[in-house]
Amino acid sequence: MTDEDTVWYYTWKRLNSAGIRVIGGEPPGGSSPLPRIEMKHPDKTAKGSRGSRKCDLYAVHDGTLLLIEAKDSHSKVQGDVDKMVDIIDDPGWAGALWDAMDERRLAARNGFPDRAAFVRDRSQLIAPVLAVPPEPGFEPPEGYLLIESDEGRTTIRTGRSDPSMDLQYALSEYLELRN
Amino acid sequence: MRSFGPLYSLLVHPRKVDSTSIWAPGTVHRALEPSRLVIFCDAKHEGLWFRDLSPLLSDASFETIGGRGTNPPLIEKLIYYDRPDIILLYDGEPVLVLEKTSEVPSGHNIGQRLGRMVRALEYEVPAIMFMPFDSMKHGKFSSLCNLNARVLEGYLRMWDIHSTPALAVNWPSDSDWELITDGSEDDGISAVVHDFIQSGFDWGCDEFFRHRALMAEEFTRRVAAHGPYGRPPPSVKIVPTRVLAGMIRQRSGGTRSLPAKWANRPETVVYTMGMTEQKCKRQDPYTGMQFLYDYQHCRNGPDPGDKRRNLVLDFPKVSIRRWKEANPNNPRTKSVLWYATANGFLLSDGLIEVRD
Fold it and tell me: Other C-beta atoms within 10 Å of B274: how many?
C-alpha cells in the first residue's frame, strides 16, 4: 500500500520535474523542505495552529494557484475537500492565504501581487487538487483535479477522464476548461 | 587563524579495514551490492529524497527510525544524542549519517543539529549536514541570514579529531536569497552521496575532499568578511584555569575547589548561558553549541575527556538543586546531552563535576 508520505513526495517531485512550480507545502508529520504556508483566519484568534490551516502542497501553473491535499486513500479525502471549499469560498480564508504567501514573499513572485484582486477572483485563481495513490474507480468531486501518485508514476485526471502522464499538458487543459 | 588542508592521513588510510572488507582498496567498487543498502529514515519522504540522490540507492530498502528503545542496537547508539534524518547501512553496518534542514543558519539555529552529527563521528560514521549557508528568513523580522561561520571550523575540527569525514554541504539560494526548491538544489549533495557510494564508501573520495576544501575556503572568506566569526562569541570566554578556580570558590562560598585534574589544563573555556531557574529545563540550542565550542577550542582527541582546555558550562542564575531537578543525566531524556562533553557545570551555588 502506498503511504501518504510517498504520495506527497512523488507528487512534489514529479510536478517539479514537469516544470510545474511547487512553491510551498508541508509533508505529513511536518519538517518541510519547502516554505511553510500557514493561513491564519482573521476571525479566528486561537493561539497556535487551532485558528490556522495549511495545505500539503501549493503549486502555481498558468496563473492559477493549486491547493493540493495528499492522502493515502480516496476514502479519507472528505475532510480535505471541505477544507479547500472553505478556503476558496470564504474571502477571509482566501485573504489569509494571500497573507501567508506574502509573508514569505511568494505572492507577488508567483503572479499574485494584488491582495484585493486575489480575494475577489479567488474562484478562478485558486484550484483544488487531491493527490492519492492510483485508484481507477475513484471519481473526484466536480471541479477537483486528481493527481494519482505512487513510486512508479504520477498521473493527472479529472472525473472519469483517462489519467495522463503528461502532467503539464493535462494541467493546462484542466485549467483552460475550468476558466 | 588555523588553515585546513586535506587530511593526508585519511587518504593513506581511508578506513580501518581488513583485506576482505568492502572498504579494502581496489575491491570496494566490485564488491558493492546495492540490495544490501538499508536507509533508516526519520520520515519516509526524507528516505525517498535520499534514495533519489544516487541511482546506486535505487534497490535500497527503507526502515523508519523508531522511538528510543525500539531500534536495532546500532541505530540506538547513533540516535543516543538525537535523531538524524538518515542513517545509511550497508550489510548491517552504518556507513553514513545525513541531516537535512531548510532552516536558516542564523545564530544558535545551527546548534540544534550538531549533537546528532557528533554522535555519528564518535562511532566513526561519516556525517553530512545539508543546509543553507545563506538564505532569507521570513516573518515579522524578514532578513537575509548568513551562516555562523564558526560551524564550518567546527566541522573541520571534528573531521580532524575523529579522523572521520564531517561535511557541511550548501543548500543553494537564488538571486533573491530564497532557497531553491525546484530539484536543482540537490545537485551538489547528490554528487557527494553518489561519489561516496560509487567509491565503495571510501572516506577519501573526491567529493568529500572537494567539499572539505570548500568548507575551509568558506570559513576563511566569511571570517574575512565578518571578523567576529574568527573569535569566540561574547558568551564564550577563554580564561586561565586559576580564574575558574576563583569562580568555583566564590560561587560555592569556599566549600568547593578546582578539581585536581582540571588544573593540568592551563586554560578553560567558560560558556555562559543566562537561563533562569524557571526556564532552565531546555536543551536547544545550547547543548549543540557546547559541541561546537568544545571542538573549536578544547578537544584534542576523540574521547570527550581528550581536551587541551577544560570546558565549563556556566549557569549563574541556576542553583545545583534546580539544575539536577530540571536536567538529570537520564539517557531516556534529551537532557542527557548536557553531560556529553563538558567537564562540568558552574552553577549559582557551586559546581557539578562531570568528567576529569
Answer: 11
